[in-house]
Every structure is written in structure tokens, then in C-alpha cells.
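Worked example 2:
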Amino acid sequence: MADHPLSPLPGAREARDPARAIKRGPSRVPPEVVAANQRERLYDAVVHTVAEKGYANATVSDICRAAGVTRPAFYALFAGKDDALIATYRHGTDLLLHLMESAYRAEPAWRDGARAALRVLLQVLAELPAFATTAVVEIDAAGPLARAERAQLLRRFDRFFSEAPSAGDLPMPEELVETVVGGIYATIYRYVAAGRVEQLPALLPMLAYFTLVPFVGREEAASELAIPVPEGPSGCHFADTG
């Protein structure tokens, strides 16, 4: 079975896919290769298990069973369930931001780049519903450390506004960007929590308008509402994740 085009992201593959198993035989696989393989399988297992059972009900045993990894191997990599979820969240959101940044930088103008980054965000979450559920909704259940990690992630979205224009040469307070990012996140959260993940790409015109209006003005931003929503897969690929 071919890899999902977003396969480096947690939840894009089944953790126990036979193609990912470490082959037994006379040639010894280096320990670091075994650990990396187990870590990737556990990332996928965390996402699928937490999305299915909810974070509160998912156990380390459930995650190990889904990954085909022993408990001692799990604890060699993570301190516990909280640590595994935060590591998975950090890994997945790093990769997602990389995709968004690539789309943003590929466009010549800030407005086009902001729209492209937002399109990637919505499409990736729609294509990986288990990842969306875990990273957007269930992260709340993992305690203060996980919520602090999410707060840090939201501040990392500021990078997409560093080159934004000022509408009418008005000063743009830092809180404005926080409000825009928070509004986008709240809308996405509402859809994911309601089980409407597949509908996220259709939000692009409205969210693009909401994102742009403080920076380009209402009249210019309104044209976003007339841009058709692209159909089909995101087309996001990782040629090199190293």
C-alpha cells in the first residue's frame, strides 16, 4: 500500500503496518534505527488511540498495543502518557508548520501567501481527522503542560503576519494578531469537536477574509469570499524531512 502523501505526520499511517516492522534476521539493526522506528509507530498509535478513545480513556497499554511496541520500549522513549502526547503534538505541529511555511514562501505577495498557508492548514486537518481530533481537541485534556505547548504553538503562527501590511497606515498592536489567530483556532476547534473535520476546506473563503480584513481593508478582503474553494487533496508532500 502506498504511503499517504502526508505520511510523516502522526496519524497518517497505521502504526502496525507490516511494511514498518523491523525485519528479523542475522543482520543486526542498529539500536538507534529500532528506537526511531518505534517512536514513529508510537506517534501514529498515540494519535489513533487518543482520537478513538479520548485522552482520558486511552492507556499506555492501548497505545503500545496499537503500535506493536512493548511497555519497556515505550518507557525508554517517553516518561508516560502525557509526555508521549506532548511529543507527538510537538512533532506533528512542527511538520504542519513546515508545510504551511513552504506554501507561504512560495507566493510572491503576503496576501497570497497567507491564503496558501491557511489552505494547507485546513486541508491537512481535513485529510487527517485523527490528527485533527488529537491535536485540536484532545490536547486540552492532557493538563497544563499540554495547554502551555498549545499556547506556544499559537504564537508561532505570528510568523505569517510579520510581513503583513497596515491598513491605512494604522498601527497594528500585537494583540490584533493574537485575536486573528485565536479566532481561526476557535472556528477550527468548533468544527473538529463537532465531527465536521471534512468540511474545514470549505471555510477557506470566510477565514481568509477574516485573516486579511484588518491588514488590507474590508473592501479588498471581501474579494476572498468570491474565490472558489479548491477541490481534491492538499498535494502536500515531504521530499525531505531531515
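The chain has ten helices and no strands. Confidence is low (pLDDT under 50) at residues 238-242.
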